[in-house]
Amino acid sequence: IYPNPNKGYFNIETNIEYYSIIIFNTLGEQVYFESSINSNNKSFDLSSLDNGVYFVKITSENKSLNKK
Fold it and tell me: How far apart (Å, rounded) are the C-alpha atoms in residues 29 and 24?
C-alpha cells in the first residue's frame, strides 16, 4: 500500500489474483468495501473521507492482511 501516509489517493500492489478490500476507521466502522478485485496494481480515491487513520484489510480465498 503506497504512498503511506496519503491524502486519500493510494495504490495497492499485490501478487494475489482475486481479493477483497475493506477499509475501517479508528472506531472500527467500515467506510469502504470492494470485492472480486482482479488487478495486481489498483488505485483508490478515498479523498472524500475525513482526514485520519484508516485500516485496510485485504482478504483472498486463504489469506488475510491488515495494514494501517
Answer: 5
- Rounded to two decimals, what is the model's pTM? 0.86
The three cell numbers of residue 58 are 485485504
Which stretches does DSSP call E strand in the chain? 9-13, 19-24, 30-37, 41-45, 55-59, 64-67
Phi-psi region of 42 (alpha: psi -120 to 50; beta: other; left: phi over 0): beta
Q: What is the pLDDT of residues 29-51, one digit of tens each?
A: 999 999 999 988 999 999 999 99
Task: Give yes or no for a contact between 1 and 28, defined as CB atoms under 8 angstroms apart.
Answer: no
Question: How many of the other CB atoms lie within 10 Å of CB of 19?
Answer: 21
